[in-house]
Amino acid sequence: MIELIHVSKCYRVKGAPSVHALNDVSLTFGERGLVFILGKSGSGKSTLLNVIGGLDRIDSGEIVIQGKSSKNFSQSEFDSYRNTYLGFIFQEYNILPEFTVGQNIALAFELQGKKASKEDLAKILAEVDLSGLEKRKPNELSGGQKQRVAIARALIKNPEVILADEPTGALDSATGKAVFDTLKSLAKTHLVIVVSHDRDFAELYGDRVIELKDGKVISDISKHKIDPSKISSGVSIIGGKTIQIQPGYILQQSDLSLINDYLRNSKEGTIISMDPKANKNFRQLTKTDENGKQDVFASTKPQEVKAF
Ligand code: ADP
Ligand code: MG
């Protein structure tokens, strides 16, 4: 668990007003989940990630890691926090262009003083969805694949926490998606904190979304899955506004009267759609899955933070 308590950080540059990059930030992060840090350029996102990662010092406040204040860290505790507890992923891929995927990963093993067996290599490639690509050179990979090699390298030290600063900043949205899919699956067993300015991705993938403005936290919300309410065996209502009818189900008289109640309140008219593409787009827009479960964000509560 990582806790920031009233953390502030100022940058002072000669001849310019000082910048409050972080201004009294208090946040608690749990053991798992995908947490997005959102905000405009200059809002303090990278500074936040860097102070969490021990790459940057804070001016005031405290950072508590696994119950121990980093103020009381010895140099070796601090080194081990940075080198074994955390894995970093940056926008630039941090991979060696003249080495193959397999060699890049093997090198990361060597840097940890380990020797990569064939099984180790296969396991780590599968984790980032790059199985079978170990003989490729980076220039034979898409941007998203390169970024997943970088993620594989970060995973080799088996970190508890993965910190990623705009990992898809250089990618188009299709390749960016594959990187987020990988991070999302890692977030089942790791805490993954991702800096991004893409709200759509944050809401689609994030378990929690923290928004910064001028170095302050202006919003901290977490995702909940809301079940649809069933009105009969084949009909359910999603979010109070959408009626979902199971494939193959034929409306009964009792359904009809309930549905008519809805229609009476529907000022904009109602669409019944059998177009799979339109329905898919509609589900995306309303953040609803095939079973009618809807993603809804609400203020993060302290007791939720344990999970993410
Ligand atoms: P973001 O990642 O959200 O774009 P940053 O955390 O990089 O924002 O920066 C927050 C603020 O701190 C910005 O105003 C930026 O100009 C300033 N800043 C960041 N790093 C430095 C630095 N090394 N020296 C001076 N100012 C900095
Ligand atoms: Mg930044």
What do you see in this structure?
The structure is a single chain. The chain is α/β, with parallel strands linked by helices and 308 residues long. It has 2 domains: 2-224, Rossmann fold (3-Layer(aba) Sandwich); 228-292, no CATH class. Helix content is 31%, strand content 27%. The chain has 9 helices and 14 strands. The protein has helices spanning 45-52, 75-85, 101-111, 118-127, 143-155, 173-186, 199-205, 253-265, 276-285, and strands spanning 2-11, 19-29, 33-38, 60-65, 68-69, 86-89, 161-165, 191-195, 208-213, 216-226, 229-230, 235-238, 242-245, 294-299. Strands 6-7-8-3-9-10-14 form a 7-stranded mixed β-sheet, sandwiched between helices. It has a 4-stranded antiparallel β-sheet with strand order 2-1-4-5, with helices on one face. Helix 3 runs parallel beside helix 5 (143-155) and helix 5 (143-155) packs parallel to helix 6. The longest helix has 14 residues, at 173-186. It starts with a strand and ends in a 9-residue tail after the last strand. The relative contact order is 0.15. The model has no long low-confidence stretch (mean pLDDT 91).
